[in-house]
Amino acid sequence: MNNLELKNRDLDVLWHPCTQMKDHETLPLIPIKKAHGVYLEDFDGNRYIDAISSWWVNLFGHTNAYINTKIKEQLDSLEHVILAGFTHEQVVRLSERLVKLSPEGLQKCFYSDNGSSAVEVALKMSYHAHLNDGKKRTLFVSLTNSYHGETIGALSVGDVQLYKETYEPLLMHSIQTQVPKDMSIEAAQVAACGFEELCKNRADEISAIILEPLVQGAGSMHMYHPEFLKLVREICDTYDIHFIADEVMVGFGRTGELFACNHADITPDFLVLSKGLTGGYLPLSVVLTTNEIYAKFYCDYNEHKAFLHSHSYTGNALACASANATLDIFENDNIIEKNRDTAKYMGKKLEKFLTLSNVKEIRQTGMICAVELQEYAPELRMGLKIYQYGLQHGVLLRPLGNVIYFMPPYIINKIEIDIMMDTALDAIKGLV
Ligand SMILES: *Cc1c(COP(=O)(O)O)cnc(C)c1O
After folding, report:
1. Distances (CA, A) of 223 to 216, 228, 246, 342
2. Of 67, 96, 276, 288, which residue is the least packed, with the fewest Cβ within 10 Å?
3. 207-233 pLDDT, tens per residue?
4. Cβ distance 364 to 370 under 8 Å?
5. Ligand 1 center to residue 431 CA distance, Å?
6. Is the CB of 149 under 6 A from ligand 1?
7. Domains present along the chain, CATH in parentheses
8. pTM of the model
9. For atom 11 of ligand 1, which residue has the closest CA?
10. 116 CB under 6 A from ligand 1?
């Protein structure tokens, strides 16, 4: 088997996500044979550093020996069981640990199997909690430039223009309030004032605000100050509006704390987690909430207040085993500390990009670094050029428009960081 053979078989029968399939007439599709650590290897023996953690999910490298062992162990005792009326050890243990590790006050875990569906869970739970209190609040607020997934509900609260335009007639109504325009504390205050204005006028319609704490991932790695989270928390308390923290991307150590909300020392009413939850192995997501919210659904059967949501693979045992193994590594290997060192090293290298005339801005939050190019027209597809250059030089970069970012697995070493970032630097130089 080689790259070409598998690519041709693939294109006969597969339709890939987030892809104009016609591009593959000229762009090679890359069949991966195996992966280890930060490296992916294709069927022709080419190796690529996975600078984007395979769509932001991988934390401790591919085919991690410890996680592999734990999943294999679980495989021989229980692969999956219905989570209604039944439970299992892995899901109980995982929930106990998440309650303990997450911001103070989050006490109950509701599982799903991907980030978008967990966002749906949080939206429904928020609406339903108000409803059980006798209040009908149908409106959700999100930030401009936000992304919360691609199912209809999650898409409705996102603010990605391309998606919105296309699917607009299918979406439920939501409103956007301005995201802080940069990482300054002033920008955080200005944006919070905007949200408060909105609440003053329409609080009795608003169920919740949903936001990506500190970094808007798909929104080109736009970053803002933790003060914004503090202020939003206060406003939510004043107006009895729920705070949904979508930490699908920023959760599990990406920002320098285990959860991004920790930077502001706040507890959201709903914490949405997925991506890194299983270390990047298996699909799993969870919504954590407070006992206060939970209590609003707790009553005699005939009062009909129970939460109405389920997925076939809710709380899958293999995925939970993978998540427990991931948390073991956090506990045993001092990961958050180590990440701070790695982030510092990446930050130093990031400064070099400012010397290039076609770079407009650099930004960093923990293990996420971004380089924004000057405003090239979208038709030039500069990101695609960087992507292709990266592949030719052994690095998987996947720019978002004119923004090149680095979000590698945490186990990346300095030599690999050098290769990853120097390759991007050369790619950007080559554009001028
Ligand atoms: C990726 C992502 C989602 C959606 O998760 P999927 O598993 O891709 O459905 C939701 N919110 C944020 C912030 C994300 O980055």
Report:
1. 6, 11, 14, 19
2. 96
3. 999 999 999 999 999 999 999 999 999
4. yes
5. 31
6. yes
7. 3-63+334-429 (3.90.1150.10), 68-332 (3.40.640.10)
8. 0.98
9. 148
10. yes
